[in-house]
Design a protein that fits this description.
It contains 12 helices and 8 strands. It is α/β, with parallel strands linked by helices. It has one domain: Aldolase class I (TIM Barrel), CATH 3.20.20. An 8-stranded parallel beta barrel has the order 1-2-3-4-5-6-7-8, surrounded by 5 helices. Helix 1 packs parallel to helix 2 and helix 1 packs parallel to helix 12. The chain binds 2-phosphoglycolic acid (PGA). 2-phosphoglycolic acid (PGA) binds next to strand 8.
Length: 263
């Protein structure tokens, strides 16, 4: 299994959720891209921001001023390319806006919007078949952790989400381990708890795809990661970056996390 010498390149994502407006989204994207570019952080770590759909284009414009520094991401997608799906946004539409990565199965989609396993699995396929990076989010709820089901839940979500993914397509998959009880609560998993869950996820990937493809998959931690706790979480061997909500809305905090990932 992976050692620190073989740690894959980290990836840090800023999940803005349903926050910002047109001008603050532009300003935030610009500040992040400028900070990454000036410190050449993109030579050591991949960075992405996931703005709300209406702000993808202004954010794309802000990022374009600093080529290669920050990837444009989307928070969700639909499974069909076009047609009678009122309110939905397709992967080709996202690509047309410059999107390179898409979040799938975020806990707020699973538990607030009630997306099921089959829909999530189809979204993974839609994203990968379009040639984009898929960030598959998994994680247990508090009562599941307290009843010892953490690894079982993560395994089910990983196996289901990647059911029809080949080892070749796996190269464009990132897993975000986000314990539901840690998201937006200020309660962070300890580095040891994150490592334990993420090591178990890598073992599932190894069982599905083999040791080498599994070792190359980036597994992010998400859930109240901030500038103060990022370095200790990302020091763990199976923590390859973070998916950041609240702290990604402040450029100085988000840049501090990216710097921690670059070290
Ligand atoms: P948080 O959100 O950093 O605000 O806990 C993380 C996420 O939901 O991706």
């Amino acid at each position: 299994m992976s050692t620190s010498a073989s740690k894959p390149r980290s990836i840090v994502g800023g999940n803005w959720k349903m926050n910002t407006d047109k001008s603050s989204a532009f300003a935030l994207a610009r500040a992040v891209a400028q900070g990454v570019s000036q410190a050449h952080l993109h030579s050591r770590v991949d960075v992405a921001v996931f703005p709300p759909f209406p702000y993808l284009l202004p954010v794309a414009e802000a990022l374009a001023a600093f080529p290669g520094a920050v990837m444009l991401g989307a928070q969700d997608c639909y499974i069909a390319d076009k047609g009678a799906f009122t309110g939905e946004v397709s992967v080709p539409m996202l690509k047309d806006c410059g999107v390179q990565a898409v979040l799938v199965g975020h806990s707020e989609r699973r538990h607030v919007i009630h997306e099921g396993d089959d829909l999530i699995e189809a979204k993974v396929q839609a994203v990968l078949n379009a040639g984009l990076t898929c960030v598959l989010c998994v994680g247990e709820k508090l009562e599941q952790r307290e009843t010892g089901q953490t690894n079982t839940i993560n395994e089910r979500q990983v196996r289901n989400g990647l059911k029809h993914v080949s080892a070749d397509l796996l190269k464009r998959v990132v897993i975000a381990y986000e314990p539901v009880w840690a998201i937006g609560t200020g309660k962070t998993a300890t580095p040891a708890d994150a490592q334990s869950a993420q090591h178990a996820i890598r073992n599932v990937l190894a069982d599905m795809f083999g040791d080498q493809p599994a070792a190359a998959v980036r597994i992010q931690y998400g859930g109240s990661m901030n500038a103060a706790n990022a370095a200790s979480l990302m020091a763990e061997v199976d923590v390859n970056g973070g998916l950041i909500g609240g702290a990604s809305l402040k450029p100085e905090d988000f840049l501090a996390i990216i710097k921690a990932a670059a070290h």
